[in-house]
């Protein structure tokens, strides 16, 4: 029987290459100082393969982990495939997604570093819910700046965060300079994630208050490896190791969490495995972006990271998978893609929902719109294998449930959903806004 | 490791007494004919202790069973109790509650009996969602008559049912005689469960269309015993058998499903266990009702069952736990209560939600308003044991999740929630409307 892992997996010792270093922002002026706890920075720099999970964090993981891995027999039958499809499901916790895996770890380290309250910016609300839940666990205060349009459209997300004791503030707000400036400009009355993030950063200026950066940092990917570690053990118990993994790509923590333990085992001489990243055609950073130094957010005051990006100014068309609308990619995932250790595909929204609805009826699990991309990607893989006369074992990361995204499913049913593929012009324009590439860009 | 049971448990051989027989309706005129499949009737009449679960049903159970049983360490810590509290969680399937356990079995038997489509009446939507999911599994059509006020207030419940392929009709509708009559009268423009049921019954007049009765029938309780059977095995694995079980009472299938396997073992000479039923003070059928022959629904055309009831004309005050607003009690649960094999308590709504919010933050599981009654009941049991200097093992049935009931939690937060206790006058009036008790009423 699979147990909750007692250590996170760090792939760096197995990779055989170093990640391109972050670079200071090219612009003069005050820099973004996030005061990330030293323990998290050390994890990111570590050369040790296994990073012990603190007892208190592991005990919390035990509230919902190990998460189920189940074979999708009925989905296979519906597809008429000869492939075996297994789903690793991360939606069974109160935050509803994989993000709680790192939120719990981050809240633990922030509290140990003396924080009394965390601030966070959130778009659709997944990251905000996860941090609110983690803060409730460790007795930390939590202040969530939520993009105003989501705050109004998704009142139940807000209810959950408030039930967990968090204060939820619609952004732009009158509380911060960034909020007042944005509201005054009225360019985006509904708000945007970068405004919400700027407000959360500003609100963390008081002593004891820390901004909790998000789910795209490398330490966050390491925390997520509990997903892949459990899945490996579960498939080993079943005697059916995977030929291909499929996961959706937002910032990279979901994909990384599932894939890194399998990739690491392969790099250490183990079984070969293909890792397929699925992104929406509305935000195709791996399939149509550039590997370049870029900002992780829009302020221009943070460091530059080498990543696959559509440009930090890229505004993706509106789609229901809000978590996949990020312009960039975690640097670790970017480096793996650059070295062809992972593959990437992009799918349009309607095809994704069509598969997700069929999957829900067949398997009794309603995937989040983000996770639906992975489910669709798995169906495409299965059909291709069938066409080529191969049978294979496919592992899908179902990163969250869609019970708070039913408006999206209703739009699909009402046939008011667009495919919203990013145009060549919009991508070219955003890529033209990339910062001048520093000479270090060539070292990777 | 616990497996999905291969047989349902039937307590009748262990009870040592027979249930009072159903009686024909006293009124003349056409009777309600439900054409329940013979296999289900046979289960209800069976004297065999174990009823094999058909392979096809058991395979479906495998999509979400065995369900998790987890110790609520943080909830215990929060209560400061010396008791151990375990939660058996049934909310992890697409229908979101335990009701899918019997819906799957019923859909299987109806299809085997030649049904092409099932009709069903639903109030808050849980039973409708479960039957819609089960019909999707077995390729049956499904037509759900949903109380109009819920149809309008809970659009996401409707979305899920439609995603599963069901047609959802707001009731009263213009489709049926019952619906037209009710709409014409305009006494209840928002509809009621009894009107929705009457519409569903009428819509089942066509060949191949069957009305799927609901979750309060005895066969439904038997199907739900998978919950208690798994929980027994899981606690046995942990070496910590329960001293007390706590479950909420709607019709009785949730309570029965959890309690019957434990009660049966006790009656066969095993370990003594207390079973506590928790009902809302808005609908206190065990604590303030009468053990009498009554109708299970309002038409007056169905059989009379001996049950604890507030009278079939009882209209409970509005509370958010819609599933606990039923006037009666399954006859098996009623007989057990009559013979003091189970206990009953009633709790008011606000105290229930206060505990549920604390439980959610502590354990990362948001209980449905119905299930919240059980969680609160467990907290009360733990505090009492502490006050008496006892430590005990408490098993709580958490029958469903509250992610589609967040409006109720928001009302609690906004302090607009009332306790809505049923008044003496309202209960006395409804009890006065009980049918004349037949002489057979004394045999039980």
Describe the structure.
2 copies of one chain form a homodimer. Chain A is of the alpha/beta class and 444 residues long. Chain A folds into 2 domains: 162 residues, 3-Layer(aba) Sandwich (Rossmann fold); 247 residues, Rossmann fold (3-Layer(aba) Sandwich), CATH 3.40.50.1100. In chain A, 42% of the residues lie in helices and 16% in strands. In chain A, the strands form 4 sheets. In chain A, strands 3-4-14-9-10-13 form a 6-stranded mixed sheet, with helices on both faces. A 4-stranded parallel sheet of chain A has the order 7-6-5-8. Chain A has a two-stranded antiparallel ribbon with strand order 1-2. In chain A, helix 6 links the parallel strand 5 and strand 6. Chain A is globular. In chain A, 59% of the residues are buried. At the A-B interface, helix 6, helix 8, helix 15 and helix 17 of A face helix 6, helix 8, helix 15 and helix 17 of B.
